[in-house]
Amino acid sequence: MDLNIRLPSPVEDIAGPFIIDERNADKTSLSSKISVLVKRDDLIHPIMSGNKWRKLSAALTTISQQQYQHVASFGGAYSNHLHALGYACAALNINFTAVVRGDYSKRLTPTLQDLQRWGTHLHFVSKIEYKNKTSAQYCQLLRQQLNADYLIPEGGSHAKSIVGVGAIMTELETQAPDITHIILPVASAGTLAGLVLNETLPHVKIIGVGVLNGEGYLEDLVNGLLASSTPSYQRKEWKILHDYHHGGYAKTSASLRQYVSEFNQFYADQNRLRPLAIEPIYSGKCFYALNALLSADYFPSNSKVLILHTGGLQGARSLPANKNSST
Ligand SMILES: Cc1ncc(COP(=O)(O)O)c(C=O)c1O
C-alpha cells in the first residue's frame, strides 16, 4: 500500500510570533518561560492530511491485506474523514460508499464533488436515520443494503485508529522528548484516545479542546475507546476543555473568525518555508484556545507545549465567513 505519506511530520517552533493579539503584546511569559511547538500533521499528505492518515492507517492496511472489496463510512457533507477515506479507497482501488448526513444530492459541497470525482458512491440519509450510526443492528442492515464488507465509524475513531495515532508519540520521542503538554482538537475522540494510550513519553499531559458542545459526551467517547483497548497499557493524564467550541460543531464567533483571519494573514506574511494556515472548525478553535490559555498563564513555568495541527483545511473550502455563526 503506497499513498506517498510523508512521515515523520515536522515539528516547528512558533513561540515568538504565536500571540498575535495585540492586547497580549506586553506578556513576556511566553517567550521567557513557555515554549510552543507545532507538529505539522497537516503536511503528511495533500489529501490524507492531519489526523486522517493516523486514524485510518491500521484499518487501510487490514483492508488491503485481507482484500476487503467495499468499504463504507459515515460523515457530514464537509467531512474531512470521508474525503480522506474516499481518496485512499480510490488510490487503492477499493469500492467506497460515503453515508452522508442529510440530503445534499442537489447541492454537492466541494468535499462531495471530490468524492464523486474519485468514484465514491454517495448514500444520503436523513439526519434522523443518521443518528443510528452507532447501532449494531442498523450497521448490519446498512452493510447488507450497500453490500459493504468493511464499515468504519464516523470520524474514523475506533479501536484500530488508536494504534496509528500512537505513531505520533513515537515520532515525538525523537523530535521533542522534553514536551510537557500536547493540545489538540477533539470531535470523535480517536486522536486524543490514541495519544493517551500510547506508552511513549508517559509524563506528557494531553489537553483536548472540544470543538462541539459536548461536555460529558466527549469524555464518554474517550472512555469508550480506552475501554476497548488493552487494559494493561499505561495511560497519560488527559482532560477536555469545553469553553472553546464557539457555539457548537462548525459554529463560529466573531472573535474566532477574527483570530483565524489574523493568524492566517500573519503567517502568510512570514513567507515561511512551509506555509501555516488554520480553519475555524478544528485547528482554529484549538489555536484560539491555546492562545487564551497562554494569555491566562494556564501552563506552569518552563512548560513546553506542543499543538497538534490536525489538518482539515479542505472542509472549510466553502465556508462563507459568516456561515453558522453563533454570535
Ligand atoms: C481536521 C480535524 N481535526 C481534528 C478532528 C478531531 O479528531 P477526532 O475526531 O479524532 O477527535 C477531526 C475529526 O476527525 C478533523 O477532521
Your description of this structure?
The protein has helices spanning 29-33, 51-65, 80-91, 110-117, 127-130, 136-146, 159-175, 190-197, 217-227, 254-269, 283-295, and strands at 11-13, 35-39, 70-75, 95-101, 121-125, 150-152, 181-186, 205-210, 238-241, 304-308. It is an alpha/beta fold and 327 residues long. The chain folds into two domains: 11-47 and 162-316, Rossmann fold; 69-148, Rossmann fold (3-Layer(aba) Sandwich), CATH 3.40.50.1100. Bound molecules: pyridoxal-5'-phosphate. Residues 50-51, 80-81, 155, 157, 185-192, 282, 310-312 line the site of pyridoxal-5'-phosphate (PLP). GO terms for molecular function: 1-aminocyclopropane-1-carboxylate deaminase activity; D-cysteine desulfhydrase activity. InterPro entries: ACCD_DCysDesulf, TrpB-like_PALP, TrpB-like_PALP_sf.
Count helical runs: 11
Q: What is the β-strand count?
A: 10
Order of helices and strands: EHEHEHEHEHHEHEHEHEHHE
Shape, per Cα inertia axes: globular
Roughly what percent helix? 25-40%
Domain module tally: 2
Q: Which blocks of ≥5 consecutive residues have pLDDT under 50?
A: 321-327
Strand content range: 15-25%
Report the CATH C-level class of the largest domain.
Answer: Alpha Beta
Largest pleated sheet:
6 strands, mixed
Radius of gyration: 19 Å
Report the span from N to C terminus. 46 Å
Q: What is the CATH third-level topology name of the largest domain? A: Rossmann fold
Strand order of the largest sheet: 1-2-10-7-8-9
At CATH's second level, what is the architecture of the largest domain? 3-Layer(aba) Sandwich
Mean pLDDT equals 90
